[in-house]
Write a structure and sequence with these properties.
The complex is a heterodimer of chains A (323) and B (372).
Chain A (H helix, E strand, L loop, with lengths): L1 H32 L7 H19 L2 H25 L4 H24 L22 H4 L5 H9 L4 H19 L1 H11 L1 H6 L4 H27 L11 H11 L4 H21 L3 E2 L3 E2 L2 H5 L1 H11 L20
Antiparallel strand pairs in A: 1-2
Helix pairs in contact in A: 1-6, 1-7, 1-10, 1-11, 1-12, 2-3, 2-4, 2-10, 2-11, 3-4, 3-10, 7-8, 11-12, 11-14, 12-14
Chain B lengths: L11 H26 L4 H13 L2 H26 L7 H18 L5 H30 L3 H23 L22 H7 L12 H18 L1 H11 L1 H6 L4 H17 L1 H10 L10 H11 L4 H24 L5 H17 L5 H17 L1
The chains are: A mainly alpha (323), B mainly alpha (372).
Chain lengths: 323, 372
Amino acid sequence: MEYFLDIASLLNSTFRISTPLVFAAMAGLFAERSGVIDFSLEGKMLTAAFVAATGSYFFGSEWLGLVLAIMACVSLSMLHGFASVTHKGDQVVSCVAINILMIGLTTALAAAWFGEAGLTPTLNNDQRFLEITLPFADALRSVPIIGLIYSEILSGHYIFVYMAYLLVPVVYWVVFKTSFGLRLRAVGENPSAVDTAGINVFSMRYKALAINGVLIAFAGAHLSTAVNANFFREMSAGRGYLALAALIFGKWHPKTALLACMLFGFTDALQIRLQGVALPIVGIIPVQFIQAIPYVLTVVLLAGFVGKAIAPSAIGQPYVKEQ
Amino acid sequence: MSALVDKSKVPWWVSNLIVPLVNLVLALLVSGLFIFIAGENPIQAVQLIIYGSFGYIEGFAYTLYYTTNFIFTGLAFAVAFHCRLFNIGGEGQAYLGGLGVFFVAINFSFLPVPIVWLLAVIGAALFGAAWAFIPGYLQAKRGSHVVITTIMFNFIASSLMVFLLVDVIRDTNQMGPHTVVVAKELWFPTFKDFGQFIGLKIRYSPLNISFLLAIAALFFVWFLIWKTKWGYEMRAVGHSTKAAVYAGISPHRNIIIAMLISGALAGLLGINEILGVHHKVIAGFPAGYGFTGIAVALMGRNHPIGIFPAAFLFGILYQGGSEVTFDMPNITRYMFVAVQGVIILFSGALENLFRPQIESFFVKRLNTVQTV
């Protein structure tokens, strides 16, 4: 029984920890499927975290914080589009610029407005998202297995967790079952053919980037207005890059990307559980090594023991219309 | 979009001086706006920056000390970039470079000092190169994108070094996570020592002879990239992998070589920081210099002639910036991280923003002058 509760809490954490990764991976999927590289998920996630926490603090509404975060992230996505779609600047450089800019600016503004530590004020319960207990969770707890799965693993998450897992089938449907999705994928694979068919490559890429900005905002808001009650510097801690690695490992496909995100979430949950625990044979593993596990895993997954990942073929190339 | 300009008619100084300068001015204007939003006066901030970096001799020496670091990390990014690789891992490579310096300084201190110095430079370069090798190898053989792997290697380097500094090579007589101090004979002569020699009184200064090593590195990179077969092959791969393959040049080999040299240059940061300044390895000593190298290289158009002034400019921003953070309570050093981002944006990603307009403006002007 205790063993089962251990596993249940591990799975519960897995869902919670992989949520920002799922949002970020789906955001990245739209940009990259349209042929625009997005390494700036990290910077945008951080921006969303800062804006959501600050907005929620000033206006007293976590939903307004989320809306402001969406506006901020869409603006950054548009900036990325302006640099790399309209002006055909280097897409990776544009992403690196956005990341470094936002790592600096979020903390600099937090420090200027709220004091030198660079933290936003702690939100009280009216200003942040709280865990949702699903109906009958307490009543069903006593039912063996199914009741426990329902009350211990599925119930009691933040709203973003449920949104993230509902988002994946929606993304799948949009990208693979609608004409918009067909155009999106075509723009990323063969933009000149799409152009010949009379579809505007630039506007498709901008639309994809706008969706990208909306989705990544949820990841940041989850970090600063749900799991934590404030923003602190570099709180995204590489999650934007992990999500991108999950997307690549998942071969730019929503379902497999979701699984890769959950794998990251699981290792991270395990990593937290393993700290200070004596394992058989090896004993206590130094905490620094345990903390490095998700990063090592990223490299291992990218090295791809399951074969080379094939990116959308027009990725990273600015589209130049024939004269 | 304005009419296309015949590239051959654009004078070199327009595309290589005027356009970058316009981009820099735009970046600084946006940065001024940020300082304004943070509740401080941008003009006053500029005055403080100029005073802090040029106003007194110690301040100027600090500017050159930062310049030294930025030359190393800027060159590191530039070498990889010539092969179309984004080595974002300068931070981790520099961290490991510091470990290499310490390793040499502790194990070979019985040798004559100049030989230990030489070995330390080799050690820094080797350790930095080793840390860049795996991302380079994975990019070449498996297509694992080097941006993600080098970022991950920064995180892993940080974990590894904290582990070493806490559990393995910590100075057990001290509390903080750092090593013992290396033998005093090995400390690099500083600007203060030079001042004493010529009878000039200078208080503490971190500027040391690593600056000369940085200048040598500028010449080395220029020679490597433009005067050797290796450099030619790297540029060929960077320009077009397919064409390089047809010319019999191996992209795999050159990607790995470019990453090794890039990592080695980043590793040299450890020489300046350990032999020149701290004399021990401190947790987190690369302090963002690796990331700043990206902005330096992009602003300097990945050429040593451009990287030197760009590194100097960032030296001014760092040293002047610390003056600003002293005097302006609302500004922290993170504001200057944001400034770097803006500079990368304008001189990297948006470098073509006004290029067509500026080039056609000058081409027209020069034509009228010639016809008159």
